[in-house]
Structure formats: C-alpha cells, structure tokens
Amino acid sequence: MTSLELNAVTGLKGTVTIPGDKSISHRCIMFGSIAKGTTEVHNFLNGADCRATIDCFRQLGIRIEKKDDVILVHGNGLHGLHAPKTILNVGNSGTTTRLISGVLAGQPFDSKLSGDESLNSRPMKRIMEPLTQMGANITSILRNNCAPLYITPGELHGIHYNSPVASAQVKSCILLAGLYADGETAVTEPSLSRNHTELMLKEFGADLHTSHALDGTSATVLIRPCKELYGQKIIVPGDISSAAYFIAAGLLVPDSEILIQNVGINQTRAGILKVCEDMGGDITLLRERTEGGEPIADILVRTSKLKGITIGGDIIPALIDEIPVIAVMAAMAEGTTVIKDAAELKVKETDRIETVTDNLAAMGVNVTPTSDGMIITGGSTLHGANIHTLLDHRIAMAFSIAALVADGTTKILDSQCVDVSYPTFYDTFEELL
Ligand code: SPQ
After folding, report:
1. Distance in angstroms (rounded) separating the CA atoms of residues 309 and 21
2. CB of 240 within 8 A of CB of 321?
C-alpha cells in the first residue's frame, strides 16, 4: 500500500494526452473475442480493470496479444468461446462483471466469476433479473445478489426490459445476451446512458437500433440475433473521465492553461463539459473531429472563477463518474452546488456520496450528503487532510486535484488504486509542473 503527499501549486501549463477510454477498451476486448477474425485495438487502456477483461477472455480460450502498442484480439466467432478451467477473476471491475455475464449466459458451458471485496459487494440483481427473464441460469453463490456468480447453460429468449436505472452496464449485459437469444431483445432505460455498446456493436455487424421517446424521457435499444460479428480496427479515444481531473486542475489552480489532447466527447459522456460551462469555466473545444464513430476534440482549459449550480436529471448518467471531481470544483466555487438524482453513486467502487462528502468535510468544506447526492457550500479555503480513498480510483484522483488548491499537505492514502483506470495519472501530472 502506498500513500502520496501533495501540496498546493500554481501555474499548471502544458499539453497532456489522456490514455484510452476505459469503457471502450473493455468493449474492444469483449466484442473482438466473440467476433470472427482479428480486432486491432490502438490506444487501449492498460489499466487494471481492462487487464481483468483480457485475462477473463484468455481464460475463455481467446488469443489476445500485444504487438508494439497495439492489442490484437483473435476472435473465435459468436460460438467460439471455451469453458474456463478456473473461476474468472473480474478484479475491481463492474463493467467486466456485468457485460461478461451477458455473454456467459448464452454459452453451452458453466462458468463462475468473482472479484475483489468492493466488486463482490456491488449489486448484481440488476443483471440477474433481466437475464433470468430471458431464460438464463445465473445465481449469486452467497445468495446475497452479489458476485461470486454462477452461470450455467440456458435457452435465451428475446424480452423487452424496462430498466429501472439508466445503466450502460445493465443495458450492455442484456444486449450481449440478446445476441444469443431466439428473437428480438429490447431495453428501455429512463434516460440514455453511455452508448458505446450500441455504436460499437453496429460497427462489428450487429443488427441494432436505438429509438428515443418523443418526449425525450427514455431511450430504447433493440437487437436481433445475427450469425456473426466481424473483427474491426479501433482507435480508442482518450477517456473524458480521466481528462476530467485535468479539466478541474486547469480551472482551479491559479494561473493555469492546459491543452488536453484527443478526448472522446461522445454526448452520453460529456456532461462535465456542460457543467463546467454552467459554472463559468473557461473551456474551449479545438479540432473537433470524428474517429471510428466517436466524436473527439482537444480541450483547452484556463483558470476560472467558478460559481455553484444545481446538477440533476437526465445529465447525471453523462457525468456519473465525474461527480467526485465536480464536487471538488463545487467546493472551490462561489455559492452553493446541489447534486441530485445521483443515487447510483452509492453502488460504485465505494459509496461515492459517502466517500466524497467525508473527504470534503475532512478538508474543511461545508457539505451535506443527501439520499441522492450532496449539497456543497463553496468558497471556503480547503485544508490539507488525510484522504481515505478506500481503494476507489476516482476518489484518489479527485482529491489529488483538491490537494493542489488546499493549504498544508494532503495525504492520499492507497494512491496506487489509480491503476484501475489511469496507471500513469501522477506522471501526467508531473508533466504540468
Ligand atoms: O466498471 P466500473 O467498476 O463500474 O467503473 C465505473 C468507474 O468509475 O470507472 C463505475 F464505478 O464506471 C462505469 C460507469 O459508472 C463504467 C460503465 C461502462 O463502461 O459501461 C458504466 C457506468 O456504470 P453504470 O452502472 O451506470 O452502467
């Protein structure tokens, strides 16, 4: 276990390039594994979560190799996976767990999967319920609706599932199982969650359509079984969730100007850009372009005086992972920020309502947790403190940014957990000092 001590800085200047998107990197391995032919992945995120996905598919008989900076996934087709010899280790990764369960539900062999303590306490009923409705056999081994999970062969049928939560993991799990069903499968979610699965599965050759309710309140994705998916070449855009820390640093640290290159700005992910704009942040998108179906831009950020705002409703799924660092920005903003409709924060790597508000309070911020978010009174001085990350990578990174504008020393406990999504986070940081 490592901890890191950080102090206030001024004048962050320079250009940084953000590593590949975690959500897209996972999906490259998964979809490539069940496609025919080779999938070539450029700018793959070499974080612990994505490495767990590679390990799981290797155990399912897929040859995955690294050649120079490119990952090659030698897919075996929709029906080409083999029974794993041991329990699949999904580590800390909710995405691996929930998406792979959709694939495994359609296989003619038994499988078990399990993760670390945090992962094994996250809710899996949200996927067990729809998969069971489809005819899958999936059980929670400890009967607590969490992993470890045990999946045995079942005949899958198409269903129309009305998801109570806007969750890309639930949606993707059902769509992947839908590839193995005997008819159409549809998922409706209350508001649109990140849509990488839909965009990418289409590129791989799936028969898939998205429609939006006329009043804009919900989105439905429909998938029909197909004979095969086909390997693709994918250039993974930089992860906006990782860029978020440097956006916040650029806005908060006095006398800063940071150019963040190659960031994916897919609308279902880019809620933080709207929030920064509403808070009065000086942010400019440069060189906007599209690569492999995903919009990308360079983001120029300059130090700004921020004001508190209310954040809630349909934008929440588009910034759910950025809320820890948005909360840090709110603590430095003038006025009150209300974050609501974000109860999903409670079921992430930690209960992020609790970990964010506890650590902000430790730094001297006037903050109140609520049942679905938090209320932050901004504008006071942050004080250095011991930050209890509880091994949550997003808490470690968000509070590393808080440390840069706090008086005194801030100690990030278990800072090594950034390896989950951004192993080179502190190196990128150094580039700007
Ligand atoms: O994979 P994991 O552990 O769930 O990671 C997190 C994160 O902060 O990196 C959430 F804790 O991101 C999720 C995200 O919150 C990644 C994801 C995806 O790739 O589909 C979707 C979101 O989760 P959900 O539950 O809203 O679908």
Report:
1. 28
2. no
Other C-beta atoms lying within 10 Å of the C-beta of residue 9: 17
- If you search the block for the tokens 């609501």, which residue do you land on? 340
> Per DSSP, what are the bridge partners of residue 295?
290
**DSSP code for 110:** -
Distance 49 CA to ligand 1 centre (A): 11
How high is the pLDDT of residue 174? 98
Nearest to 73 by CA among 96, 39, 28: 39
DSSP conformation letters of 121-144: GS--HHHHHHHHHHT-EEEETTSS
Residues found in the chain: 433
Tens digits of residue pLDDT in 375-393: 999 998 999 999 999 999 9
**What is the Å distance from ligand 1's center to 268 Cα?**
13
Contact indicator for 132, 84 with CB cutoff of 8 Å: no
**Measured CA distances, 237 to 147, 192, 266, 295 (Å):** 31, 20, 10, 9
DSSP codes, 248-278: HHHHHSTT-EEEEEEEE--TTTTHHHHHHHH
Where do we find the tokens 């009305």? 162
Q: What is the pLDDT of residues 174-211, one digit of tens each?
A: 999 999 999 999 999 999 999 999 999 999 999 999 99
CA of 93 to the centre of ligand 1 (A): 8
Which protein residue has the closest C-alpha to ligand 1 atom 5? Answer: 94
Which among 169, 172, 192 is the best mutation to test ligand 1's pocket, defined by most ligand atoms within 8 Å of the CB?
A: 169
| C-alpha to C-alpha distance for 347 and 355, rounded to whole angstroms | 12
Q: What distance in Å separates the CA atoms of residue 291 and residue 95, rounded to the nearest whole number?
A: 23
Taking alpha carbons only, the member of 21, 24, 55, 59 closest to residue 39 is 24
Which of 195, 240, 321 gets mutated to test ligand 1 (max ligand atoms within 8 A of its CB)? 321
| Radius of gyration, CA atoms only, the chain | 21
CA–CA separation, 61 and 334 (whole Å):
55
The number of CA neighbours under 13 Å toward the Cβ of 406 is 30
As a whole number, mean pLDDT of residues 11-40 equals 98
Q: Whose CA is nearest to atom 15 of ligand 1?
A: 321
What CA–CA distance (Å, rounded) separates 35 from 80?
9
CA atoms lying within 13 Å on the CB side of residue 118:
19
Give the pLDDT score at 347: 98
Instruction: Please give the average per-residue pLDDT across 44-52, as a whole number.
Output: 98
